[in-house]
Amino acid sequence: MFYSLRSKLIASFLGVSFLVGAVSLLVGGRLLYNAVLTEAETRVSYNLNVAREFYSTRVNNIEMVFSVAAQSHGLHAGLKDHEASKLVGLLRDVAQRIELDFAGVATSDGSTLCRLGPPPIPREGPQPANPLVKTALNKMSSIAGTVVVSRDFLFAENPELAARARIKIVPTPLAASEPEGDIASGMVLAVGIPVFDEGVLLGVLYGGILLNNNRSIVDAIRDIVFQEETYEGRPLGTATIFYKDVRIATNVLDREGKRAIGTRASRDVRERVYD
Fold first, then answer.
1. Who's near 103: CB < 8 A, 6+ residues apart?
2. DSSP H helical ranges for the chain
3. How many Cβ atoms sit within 10 Å of the Cβ of residue 171?
4. 130-157 pLDDT, tens per residue?
5. φ, ψ dihedrals at 43, nearest 5°
6. b/e per residue, 20-42, with b = 16+ CB within 10 A?
7. Do the beta carbons of residue 245 and residue 270 sit within 8 Å?
8. Residues 6 or more apart from 7 whose CB is under 8 A from it?
């Protein structure tokens, strides 16, 4: 009876201990999981806010410089007299100051008077649609942000931009099954500033940066957010600009160690995030 009672007490004690330990392990594990998940979500949200702020600052800088340029006497005089040759130098100074890929001046009817080029002065004839000028004229106020422009627009601004914008879509595992092809349009970060003289509209000053195959913005965001940390010789973090679900600017590397331009997000990411 003594040994039987002792065995029962030991068994009961061990059972309670195991039960308490198992409950503690489950509760502790759950709390730890929630803490890690919360920390990860907070970090991702912070990183996205930093990237968004950097991107917005880039837009604001262009808008600020253009707003100042729109008040210059030289720009007003050139627009009044339609002296395109006098305005080209001003455009080049502004573009070099804030590292623009394209810039131009349009008249009050929306036609381009001059641009960085080549050629700096448009040939006579129909001109491709300029969404920056059109929107600025419709709103009669400054516009700034991201817009997709046609290949014809880019080619008119500079044929090299049209070539840089073209991206071949690369077949990507787990991506949505859609026909492969090329992207010819360009996603640009741009501004349009109406130019007024004593309340009279003279024209529009416009310009921007082509994001297709652009390295500077995604690399700067990566370096700011992840502070150039690496793991096994590769950057710990990456940044990507997508057009739809296609990477048009990224520091994600493919198997050959090249930037994965033209690859696509997986079907799950497209459906859960983009769609």
1. 91, 94, 95, 115, 116, 205, 206, 207, 208
2. 2-69, 73-81, 84-98, 131-139, 151-157, 159-165, 216-226, 267-269
3. 9
4. 999 999 999 999 999 999 999 999 999 9
5. -65, -45
6. eeeeeeeeeeeeeeeeeeeeeee
7. yes
8. none
* Closest to 66 (Cα-Cα) out of 159, 156, 164, 189: 189
pLDDT digits (tens, 9 = 90+) for 70-119: 999 999 999 999 899 889 999 999 999 999 999 999 999 999 999 998 88
> Confidence band (pLDDT; 50, 70, 90) for 69?
very high
Is 152 within 8 Å of 128 (Cβ atoms)? Answer: yes
pTM value is 0.84
User: Phi and psi for 266 in degrees, rounded to 5?
Assistant: -65, 160
Cα–Cα distance between 107 and 45 in angstroms, integer? 43
Of 149, 170, 150, the residue nearest 264 (C-alpha): 170
Please provide the size of the chain in residues: 275
Instruction: For 9-37, write each residue's pLDDT tens digit.
Output: 777 778 878 888 888 888 888 888 888 89
